Amino acid sequence: MDSFEINKIIAAVLMVALLVIGIGKLSDVIFHVEKPETPGYAVKVEQVSNASSSATTASEEKINIATLMALGDVATGEKIFKKCAACHSIIKGGKNAIGPALYNVVGRKVGVVEDYKYSKALAAYEKEWTFEELNGYLTKPAKWIKGTKMAFAGLRKEKDRASVIKYLNENSDNPLPLP
Q: What is the number of other CB atoms lying within 10 angstroms of the CB of residue 60?
């Protein structure tokens, strides 16, 4: 390759570079965009008073459990419990797995299964597994008892929760009467 060919290649590369820079400058002139004084977007947030938020929480917690339990049935609960069976045993005398055994769970004090190491939050929770407690816990365990190590997203459908609670209640020596 002679020097004339090299000069043509270098000239072509320089022309492309100048063309790209020129088009960029020309587009800045044609499509001028004014930059804002402060970068970002203003987000309007409405202030919610504590009284209304606590009233909302109280209404969420005060679900008519009798109406909720009427939605579920044991057969559906058994099918849905298969999600839970990966970590929990439901048979009488069943062993603890990743989670504690759940036989006789309805009406039992929270965090008392022997040979199972509960999270500090569940061990310190001073309540019993009532229908209401189970409903709240199964909705979203991490939200109901903050600090629990149960990594389950929860059951969103009320019918599913009611069915699982009925199934848990049936798997007991003395099932509690339904509300």
A: 10
